[in-house]
Amino acid sequence: MLRSCACLLLVTAVPVVTAVPAVAAPTPLQAAIGNPGWLHLSANVRARIESIDDQIRPGFMANEDLFSLRSVIRAEIGDGPLHLVGEIWDSRSYTVRTGSAAGTGEVNVLEPVQVHAVADLGPVFGAGSGLVVTAGRMVLNLGSRRLIAADDYRNTTNGYTGLRADVSARPGAQATFIYVLPQQRLPNAFDDVRNNRFALDRESFDARLWGGIVSFDHVLGPVHADASLFHFGERDAPGRLTRDRDLTTIDARLLVEPVAGSFDGEIEAAWQWGHIRNGLAAALPLQVVAAGYVHADAGYSFTGRWHPRLAAEFDFASGDRPGGRYTRFDTLFGMRRADFSPGALLGAMGRSNFVTPALRLEVAPSPRSDGHVLARAMWAASASDAFATSGVHDPTGRSGGFAGYEFDTRLRHWLVPARLRGEINADLFLRRGVLRRAPNAPTGATTAYFSAAVTAFF
């Protein structure tokens, strides 16, 4: 941890970037070429150091430091109903050693994650309606982003190739439909990741994602509602074994956005069915899937200079149990940082096999700064399944369901408004129960994680 803190001084001197959508105001890149109205250029670069002491996940080195650099450049061509979008991500890590937890989540060199055309077809369903069609390589953030997202904390992102249609029937009512092929990040061999080698990501009909989400604003006063259905299917391909997942997930959500001086809240529930193999071997039998997930939170936003919001949260994701059916929830391509601790080197908390209540305090002391602190207790929903995404597993269940406590913090500050932002994340896990006693649990009672990043926007 002390090594990471010392590196912060070095990081703040490095240009940094995270992907951001195009904005109307000319960027420095645009201004440099004369700001033509039909072309929008933007870029960002993010430099980040991470450190973990007493890794939770088995199979990796106990203590690790990682330096990562992510550069993104985006171009939009066209100012009419048809325009083209291209976006290249260059994600690298420079301190990967044998035993590292780094993988394709950290390294993806010179990848054209987005190359697509967008066509605004106008009010094809009558006055007040709209239809926008996107075709090509793209990123997706749908609904709460708990099932389909372009993860921003991670050094790489999720890309998809296919079709998207955005439909609006009237103000406050929208729908999005997709048929896409998730991109497989390449190369995925550890030596290639460690040496930042280049290979184009691959998409094929061996992995398919389709479905849609409908949403309505003000269904009852300030309440927003959405509902979705998504199907994901995969099969083995040459050089790539899969678990032959064939999963359908339905999801419904009600949301009241935070407003100063008011209560807010959210409840979301998902149910998943289909079939899966409980391993990569083709000889394993297919199992019937029956799994679920619930998120709920209730908060109050206080008035005052710091705009504090205090919220109670609860998350449940089913785990696998004996009995023949497969009952572990699969979050598909969902994000994790908005709800849980970071992925990257930590990566222990994901939407599978946990029960976790939490208290969160958020503050925004100025338009340039925001942060949160969170405390949670953790249990496994099934004591005989691996806890969350930690990989810690006691098949007998004798280690019990309790996993311990987590304390999570984040602070972000615009060093230069709209151009340069710093971010610090720190997490402390007090490991108890299954995270200490399971047969494959790494040694240590406390896991500490720290990251510091600077992002520059051009």
Task: Provide structural commentary.
With 458 residues, the chain is mainly β. It has a single domain (2-457), classed as Porin (Beta Barrel). It contains 4 helices and 18 strands. It has helices spanning 2-11, 28-32, 190-194, 434-437; strands spanning 39-53, 64-77, 82-93, 108-122, 130-138, 160-170, 173-182, 207-220, 223-234, 246-256, 262-277, 286-301, 309-317, 354-366, 369-379, 402-416, 420-431, 446-457. A hairpin with a 2-residue loop joins strand 14 and strand 15. Mean pLDDT is 92; it is low at 1-24.
What is the total number of structural domains? 1
CATH class: Mainly Beta
Number of DSSP-assigned strands? 18
Rg (C-alpha, Å):
22 Å
Spans of at least 5 consecutive residues with low confidence: 1-24
Order of helices and strands: HHEEEEEEEHEEEEEEEEEEHE
Helix content, binned percent? under 10%
Shape: globular
Q: How would you state the average pLDDT, rounded?
A: 92
Q: Briefly note the structural class of the backbone.
A: mainly beta
Report, as a whole number of angstroms, the end-to-end distance. Answer: 31 Å
Biggest sheet layout: 18 strands, antiparallel, barrel
Strand content: over 45%
Look up the CATH topology: Porin
CATH architectural label: Beta Barrel
Secondary structure blueprint with pairings:
Elements: H1 2-11, H2 28-32, E1 39-53, E2 64-77, E3 82-93, E4 108-122, E5 130-138, E6 160-170, E7 173-182, H3 190-194, E8 207-220, E9 223-234, E10 246-256, E11 262-277, E12 286-301, E13 309-317, E14 354-366, E15 369-379, E16 402-416, E17 420-431, H4 434-437, E18 446-457
Antiparallel strand pairs: 1-2, 1-18, 2-3, 3-4, 4-5, 5-6, 6-7, 7-8, 8-9, 9-10, 10-11, 11-12, 12-13, 13-14, 14-15, 15-16, 16-17, 17-18
